[in-house]
Write a structure and sequence with these properties.
Order of helices and strands: HHEEEEEEEEEEHHHEEHH
Distance between the termini: 35 Å
Number of domains: 2
Structural class: alpha+beta
Mean pLDDT: 83
Shape: elongated
Radius of gyration: 27 Å
CATH topology of the largest domain: Immunoglobulin-like
Number of strands: 12
CATH architecture of the largest domain: Sandwich
CATH superfamily of the largest domain: Cupredoxins -  blue copper proteins
Strand order of the largest sheet: 3-2-1-5-8
Helix content: 25-40%
CATH class of the largest domain: Mainly Beta
Length: 327
Amino acid sequence: MRIRDPIFLLPDASSISPRIDLLFWTMVGMCTLVALGVMLAMVYFCIRYRLGSHADRSNRHRKNLSVELSWTLIPLVIFLGMFTWSLFLFAQLHTPPANSQTIYVVAKQWMWKIQHPGGQREIDMLHVPLGQPIRLTMTSQDVIHSFYVPAFRVKQDVLPDRYTRLWFTPTELGRFPLECSEYCGLDHSKMRGYVVVMHPADYARWLHDHAASASVVAQGKAIFRQRGCSGCHSPHASVHAPDLHGIYGRVVHLSNGKTVVADERYIHDSIMLPDSQVVAGYAPIMPSFKGQISANDMLKLMAYLKSNTTDEHPAPTGQTEKRDEHD
């Protein structure tokens, strides 16, 4: 597989890249036409109405409603059209297909730490199968980074104590540069890697050759038990704490009368700052795990909790949690 050079010839290597390119070049073309039109008009009027010319300057204050409406309404319609087009494209960029494969990414100064669902781990390399939608769940261990693959036309900031997502479907075999596009410190320029797109059969062999002792979900389950979470949050626990089975995506009622959806942000804060969102019907007795659980372990915990999510999401009277991804 050859390395593509995005400086001289940027390939269209994902399903979304042709659509982004079309929008970009349409905007470039329209801006070029407007700039040329303005320049030509300026040159024309500078020559025709130059000092000493014989141009007719009578009726200088005459109004022309059709011209005024044209230069107001036509740009407005074009702007609204471009806005609608970009809005639909933005929605597509943030709506991964249901059959996407989730891969976990932890950014740190100055490397990309990758973990596949089966537990396979990589640093500064991301192996993916051709034609398979890939969804990245990302967080940062230290400062703000930005995951950028120019050939795929995708870029997403990666934040500490937060979880961001990015998805793409690779459509071309090869090895494509992965960059950090957010200044993150002294060796920011060295925070680079590659996305390697392989045939599905080759990818399956790669997964087999790099098999881990346990999957991400199994590792998360082990951490859940090691940290004592199961002692309080299992159905038969003696401690009065919520059952966390199927917690992800459920509506949680808080003691202050508000409701929240148990997403990554809520789960993370429930582990690190448990007193910030106390669940209705439960005493605020959960200890904080801030500084005790790494970003990698939090991602594993989140994977485990998501694996317990049911198809139905009832609205419980309360729910606090102790798991999630991030540092």
